[in-house]
Every structure is written in C-alpha cells, then in structure tokens.
Amino acid sequence: MILTVLLISTIVFVVIRVIPGDPALVIAGIDASQSDIDAIRAKLGTDEPMLSQYVNWIWDVIRFDFGDSMISGQPVTRLVLERFPLTLSLALMGIVISIIIAIPLGVISAVKRWSFWDYLGMAFSQIGMAVPSFWLGILLLLLFSVKIKIFPLFGSGTIMHLILPAISLGIARAAVLLRLTRASMTEELSKEYVVTARSKGLTNRMVYYKHALKNALLPIITIGGIQLGYMLGGAIIIEQVFSLPGLGRLFLFGVYQRDFPLIQGGVVFVAFVFSLINFIVDMLYSVLNPKIRIS
After folding, report:
1. pLDDT one-digit tens code per residue, 37-52
2. What is the pTM of this model?
3. In this structure, which of 21, 210, 274, 281 has its CB flanked by the most CB atoms within 10 Å?
4. CA-to-CA distance for 182 and 115, rounded, in angstroms?
C-alpha cells in the first residue's frame, strides 16, 4: 500500500510539471508580469531544481502536507478533510445499495439458472451498466424532486439529500456485482463439497447461503472494495448534478481554477484512501477463508 501511494505520488508530480508545462505560467495567464510568475513559482516551489522539488514533494506527502490552495489560501489537507465525510457517506451508501440489490438477485440467478429471475437479473445488469450514472441521477431528480417532491432538489445536510445520488451511483455498481455474484455462485454450486453437503441432508438454504455463498464472497468482496474506491474518486459528476459539496466538486473547482496544489493533493489523497480500502479487503480474506488465516 505504501509503495502504491509513493508511486502514484511520483506520477502526479511528473504529470503536473510536464504535461501542462510550467504550472506558474498556466496559473498566471498570458498577461501576467514576470514578477507575478516568479512569485507563483516561489509559492509552488517550482523555482528549485527538479530533484529538490521531488524530494520536498515526497516529504510533504509523507507528512500529509499538500501545501496551500492557490485560490483560497487555505491548507489543501484541511479543504480535503472537510469535504471527505460527505463523499465517504455517499460512497458507502452507494455500495450498500449495490450490495443489497446485487447479492440476493445474483444468488437467485445462479440457483435458478435460465429462469425468469435469471433473465431479470441479467436484464438489470445490462441496463445498469449501459445507463450513465449522471443521466440516471437527472431522471431521479425530475421524478422524485420535481414531480413527486419526495426528496430535496439540491444541497446537503440530511440523509434525504444523499439517497438519490447514492442510488445513481449504486445502480451501476450493482450491475457489475450482480454478474460477478452469479458467476461466482454458479462455479461454487458445481463443486464437490456442495454435493457432499446435500448428501448429508442439509437444506438448500443451508447449502446456498452457509456454504456456497461464503466461498463465493471472496471475489465479490475484492470487486466491491474496488467499486467503493471508484465511487470515492468518480463521484465528481454526481456531486455536480446534485449540488453536493463533496470532494468531487472541490476537485472540479480546482481544475477550473487551475489550482495545482489542490489538484495534486486531492489525487494523492484519493489514491491513499483507495489503497487503504484494498488493504482492508485483503485483511477480510482471512476472516472469510480460514485457509488464508492458517497460511
């Protein structure tokens, strides 16, 4: 996890300084004076040799210090941490919704293959992966906020503000998890230990949920953790659609304003959280699979 974060930090450092050219020139604009450009370079630290810049950047990343925003002047770490709880709540609600939909329907699809429920699950999966989250979010707003007026139209502060955006995020992720659950359960149901369990007189409920599903959960948890990480970093458009002041809108503001410290700090922070989620998922393997714990 540490090596991954350091590698991503290096990539961010190189991309910010190579692709747009001199960040100071991009921030200052073509009409800026040389003194203004020099002042921005001094604030960003780009007036130093490249190796010195890189060493200072890695040291700042280790200390979780991403400098100050070029626009607001506030520490980037503070800005990110202020917005992170909302985005995390949105992502967690989205993944919970996707799990509630995907796992039961995926298990039913695997147990009753080629039945109505199986075709229903596959149809939902295809539609869920084809429909863009932001488009679904706009439809949900029109239906439940404009027409029926059950949920607030925009803003944050209560759980009601998060339900529609969480559904918008969760549907697409549910489609992926549903297909994976069906495939994983189908594979487990064909193994010999399932036949043995049935020969012992165990009920189908015990066989499906206590034995087969428990073994089928390993790949599902892996993809679920990755999907949660994607939600944290990929909620920019959803937060814009629902006017949620989360990380997504903060990073989008940074891009619009060419706030390079905010952009690079935000990317590294999301990468760190993503890596932490994958680390936690790996630890969960030993809880679900005693063989991994023993080894």
Report:
1. 777 777 777 777 778 8
2. 0.80
3. 274
4. 13
Three-class DSSP labels, the chain? CHHHHHHHHHHHHHHHHHCCCCHHHHHHCCCCCHHHHHHHHHHHCCCCCHHHHHHHHHHHHHCCCCCECCCCCCEHHHHHHHHHHHHHHHHHHHHHHHHHHHHHHHHHHHHCCCCHHHHHHHHHHHHHHHCCHHHHHHHHHHHHHHHCCCCCCCCCCCCHHHHHHHHHHHHHHHHHHHHHHHHHHHHHHCCHHHHHHHHCCCCHHHHHHHHHHHHHHHHHHHHHHHHHHHHHHHCHHHHHHCCCCCHHHHHHHHHHCCCHHHHHHHHHHHHHHHHHHHHHHHHHHHHHCHHHHHC
Q: Return d(Cα 295, Cα 287) in angstroms, integer.
A: 13
Q: What is the pLDDT of residues 54-87, one digit of tens each?
A: 888 888 888 888 888 877 788 888 998 988 888 8
The C-alpha atoms of residue 92 and residue 88 are separated, in whole angstroms, by 6
Homologous superfamily of domain range 82-294: MetI-like (1.10.3720.10)
**Residue range 90-132, pLDDT digits in tens:** 888 988 999 899 888 988 888 888 888 888 888 888 888 888 8
3-state secondary structure of 49: coil
CA–CA distance, 183 with 199 (Å, rounded to integer): 24
* Structure tokens given for 243: 């006017």
